Amino acid sequence: MAQSLRENLLENKPYVDLVLGPDSYRRLPQILEQRQQQPDHVVDAKLSRFEVYEDLFPRRHAGINAWVSIMRGCDKFCTFCIVPFTRGRERSRSVSNIIEEVTQAVEEGFPEITMLGQNVNSYRHEDHSFADLLAGTAAVPGLKRIRYTSPHPQDINDDVLLTMARHDNICDYIHLPLQAGADRILRRMNRTYTREYFMRLVDRIREILPEVGISTDIIVGFPGETDEEFRQTLGVMEYVKFDSAFTFKYSPRTGTKAAEYGDQVAAEKSQDRLEQLIKLQKEHTLFRNRQMIGKHVTVLVEKESKRSAEMWAGRTDANKWVIFPKQSARIKDFVTVEIKAARGVSLHGDIVSLEQK
Ligand code: SF4
Q: Which of 221, 231, 249, 355 is the most buried (most CB within 10 A)?
């Protein structure tokens, strides 16, 4: 916001005191002091090539999942995305520093951590890759679950997948943004992979991690997308049958290359495509969830179900929500649940055994 809307904020919102970018937090005390001494607002939106807030650990309240930022920025430059301009170049924290923060989160009672980054699997610090970081973090005593988001398909490799397979506490779940299923659109998006690459990658993921849950992001109505190209996206969905998907109508972001493309798709057409896509994804989610019926899955008890005070809600390793009667289980317990039904996006079942926290 500060990077891309700075001028607008200063002109139209005169009551704004400070406009700070994502790399300015460390200077906050000096900036506040400066604001005391000058009548005018302060703007500090410079991006850093190095800032990763290495030594600043967030103060956390009790909970299930601790978000741990491992890298910042993005060098991929997808043509629809403003992130490389607002977050700057990729830079990563050291493995030792991340493990220190994870250890602290575990000591504070968090059973799960999620590694965060704009492009999490392009993590690189000195000689350490993302797979090295995963392996190092998996060895933190008491850490029950590791998740990460969001990776880029180009940077998912065998090292990452085999590391996931080797460690029980790295969840069998990958969020794998497809964005589009036609090669011409992928090229216009500058996504750096083809439809074929994506489908072979999914094959490889499922070969190494047979129980994996895969979710995705898809954009419809990207500039120039034809009916046939949209059908190719549906074709990839049919092939993969994602467990879930975040679906979006393309909307131009000022300052991106795609916003300047002349062949924007009409709003009604995009809406129609979005509805088709949502309908198909619902079928696939149900298809995947029905395959779980009769299975025993490990669930981390996370919260009371929204529907009933008698039920718990928790997620499987593969990131599927399961609703089940509470019995004697408590929040943060790991329970084995027999899946009895698949309804909507969630699974329903009964506890068959319980591991108290
Ligand atoms: S969509 Fe993701 S990979 Fe592409 S530029 Fe944005 S943050 Fe980077």
A: 221
